[in-house]
Amino acid sequence: MSRSHDMFRDRAEAFVSFRGMRIFTSILLTKPFEDWSEVRSPSRAARRLKRGFRQRIKHIQVPDPDVYQIAGAFHMHPETLLRFEREVARRSEPRP
Questions:
Q1: Is the domain of 25 the same as that of 72?
Q2: Are residues 38 and 50 in the same domain?
Q3: Which end of the chain is less enclosed by CB atoms within 10 A, N or C?
Q4: How far is 7 from 1, CA to CA, in rounded Å?
């Protein structure tokens, strides 16, 4: 394995232990998303897109909000892990 591949792998995946759960985070866990914010009329743009006209739709990748359990460990995007940790902290606060 080349050194550049090792550097990419180090940035792409990380292992975290959270309250005894093994969690692997990867920036590669994304899903495709169509951004229609630059389109003036989305319904008209959708009709024209079906007819073959080019539209101002951005195809981007966004973090996958899903968590996958594989071989006793959880795999998720780092942003999903942050939301998970915030939610656990919020729920564990004592209620007045």
A1: yes
A2: yes
A3: C
A4: 11
What residue numbers bound the domain in which 42 lies? 31-62
Q: Across 1-96, where does the E strand assignment appear?
A: 13-18, 21-26, 30-35, 58-63, 68-70, 73-76
Sign of the CA dihedral with 80 first, then 82, 88, and 94 last: negative
What type of residue is 65? P
Sorting pLDDT into bands at 50, 70 and 90, what band is 9? very low
β-strand pairing of 73-76 with 21-26: parallel
Cβ proximity of 13 and 25 under 8 Å: yes
pLDDT digits (tens, 9 = 90+) for 40-89: 999 999 999 999 999 999 999 999 999 999 888 888 999 998 998 898 88
Are residues 69 and 23 located together in one domain of the fold?
yes
**24 and 71 co-located in one domain:** yes
